[in-house]
Amino acid sequence: MGADQERGRRPRAADWGVPLLLVCAELTAIWLLADKSGEPLGRARWAGAGAAVALAATTLVWRRVAPWPVLVATVLLSAFGIVVAGDTDAPAGGMADGVALYSLAVSRARRQAVIGCLLALAVAFAADLPESREPGELVSNGVLDSVCYLGILAFGQLRRQREAVRRSRLAKIRREHRHAAEAERERLARDLHDVAGHHLSAVVVHSGAAARAGDPKLIRQALAGAAETGREVLTSLSRLVDAVSPQAEGGGGLRELLPQLCQGLNRLGVPVALTVEGRARKLPAEVTTASYRIVQESLTNVMRYGSGGPVRVIVRYLPGAVELAVENEMLAGVRAVPSFGTGRGIDGMRERASRLGGDLGAGPAPEGGWLVTARLPATTASDHGTGWPEILDAVTIAFCAAPRALGLVPPEPLASGWPVGWVALIAAALAVRSALLWWRRRAPYAALSALTAVDAVLMVVAALWSVDALVLFVLGCPAQLVAVYSVACYGRAVPRTWHAPLLATLPWGIGLGTALAADPEVSADGAGPAPFLFGFAVACLVTVPFTAAVWAWGTAVATRSRRWETTALDAASARTGEVVHAERTRVAAGLSGTVLDRTARLTRAAERGLAGGDRDARAALDVVAGQARAALTDMRGLLESLEEKA
Q1: Torsion sign, CA atoms 19, 21, 22, 28
Q2: What is the rounded (10 degree) CA torsion for 284, 287, 293, 295?
Q3: Which phi-psi region, left, alpha or beta, contains residue 364 (left: φ > 0; alpha: ψ -120 to 50)?
């Protein structure tokens, strides 16, 4: 539902889910919270913080209907909860206003979303200012708040853009429906005129001339020509409507569509051979539709203008692309390449390919005949607005680096007493390590592998050097989880990603194993590799549930996105075939009982006249001429109806 549709409606039952979850989680956390002296919160402070949490969560019920008032209310209530609790770490703030900011970012444009983010940051900073014990704590909270709010803003704007992209893609498919119907009407009208109009007009002219001459020989020649022409018109009109099997367009991939398409033309006497090279795979709906239409149009042109020679259809699945080739061979004795009419069909195919970022060529084949080639990308380009994916990646890097960076500075630095040079070197290494996440979308598996290698080295160094260094490593664990999520969500080039969560546990196992092996008390009795193996196994067993859970989350998100591709887009694309089939059905219904029926009567009358005497032939000629004129009249009415429909 778009932002405009959300306005003015009442909250639904589903809108209560998040508020109820937040109330339960935050009230439980406040109950367990102890103040600086270690005593539980007093009754008055607990009641005030709890009331702020409950009110802030309740306002979230209207977050889709009125995102701006809800954001203002939640940030003020969250700030009030922090002040009442008397602790910047109190769970009374940050959750409800984060949800409200996300709803605002999803439903409003960039400017309003950024203003809302700045408002939430300003109020959070103002609430933290009187409660911070020293400047370092204020800076730390400010950095973490900035990273979190900016990440929420980026997530919301990306979802807004993703929904806009989906609406745009569906709109393109609806336009494709209209264009396909118009093109089919134009093709049917043009072919109907070429096939039936010319031949039936010739029957009328020849029949009239023979009737006026009165020569029995000319009359029989006219009847023979009319019978042959009638049979040709009946065959051609049947091909016109049934040139492509309508059942072939009900959905599915090229593996299901193209064989039926080629078999349909084989039944009509056009020899078509289909060859598939490379590993066939599922393509986006737009690419499948474009590929099918290009092959369909090429085969239709072959049927209309080809020399009657065999046709080859080749589909090549390449890395990142699919190539199509349709070539009809030249029959012996045919010197010229048959014309492809006005060229509008080729222009339409070329435009279809270019819309997807592909290209198409058509022209004489090297060995004679005609060749159409097309190369289409195997994936559709992302239409996300520029900036937000990069902002989200930068926020992700900052989120993963901030805890470690803050661990090197006051008020409670883990690096207390370390040489300045070592601190600078460690800070640089941590920055490089987090920066690897910049490639988490484009090359997620490479980013995870590089991150794992770097973390393994850092863990060994930390285990041999200082326990504080190990704690510093623990603070950076979100980077590994983000990398695992990215492999599951964006690693479509890798067939299976189940080993990603196992790979992410290796640094933990290596680090703990090294720490145990280096401990003099553990290895004093010459235990050999046992301490290392024990530490390695324990660390992996403890961490793999977390990495596996994140991997499952990323897999679920990717599956949901692909399900939309294969359901909504494929279903919408299949509608293109339905509207084309509807046009053929309409023309077939118009031909049946009118043009086809009169042409059949014309043919039978001509055949009876040829089998009878001269008087029968003369009477049959009158019937043939009358039926031909009536068929032309019906055909003109059908053509006019096609023009009115357009």
Answers
A1: positive
A2: -110
A3: beta
Give residue 243's Cα distance to chain centre. 31
Mean pLDDT of the chain: 77
Burial 589-626 (b: 16+ CB within 10 A, else e): ebbeebbbebbbbbbbbbbbbbeeeeeebbebbebbbb
| Whole-number Å distance between alpha carbons of 375 and 354 | 10
97 phi, psi to nearest 5 deg:
-70, -30
Please state the length of the chain.
Answer: 646
Of 426, 451, 458, 440, nearest to 394 (Cα)? 440
From the DSSP assignment, how many helices (H) and strands (E) are in the chain?
Answer: 23, 5
Q: What digits encode the pLDDT tens for the residues 104-148? A: 999 898 899 999 999 988 888 887 777 666 666 677 777 778 888
Rounded to an integer, what distance in angstroms lies between the CA atom of residue 511 and that of residue 472? 12
- Contacts with 557 (C-beta within 8 Å, 6 or more apart), sequence order: 488, 489
Distance in angstroms (rounded) separating the CA atoms of residues 322 and 332: 32
* Cα–Cα distance for residue pair 29/500, rounded to 1 Å: 33
Band of pLDDT at residue 88, cut at 50, 70 and 90: low
Residue 408 has phi, psi (to 5 degrees) of -100, -5
| Strands in 330-459 per DSSP E | 359-364, 370-377
- CA distances for 130 relative to 83, 87, 88, 125, 135, angstroms: 8, 10, 9, 9, 11
Spatial neighbors of 369 by CB under 8 A, at least 6 apart, are 307, 309, 327, 328, 329, 330, 337
Q: What is the pLDDT of residue 199?
A: 81
**For residue 166, what are the CA distances in angstroms to 64, 66, 250, 285?**
20, 24, 22, 12
- With a CB cutoff of 8 Å and minimum separation 6, the contacts of 378 are 281, 283, 284, 287, 317, 318, 319, 320, 321, 322
pTM of the model: 0.58
End-to-end CA, the chain? 32
For residue 336, what pLDDT is reported?
46
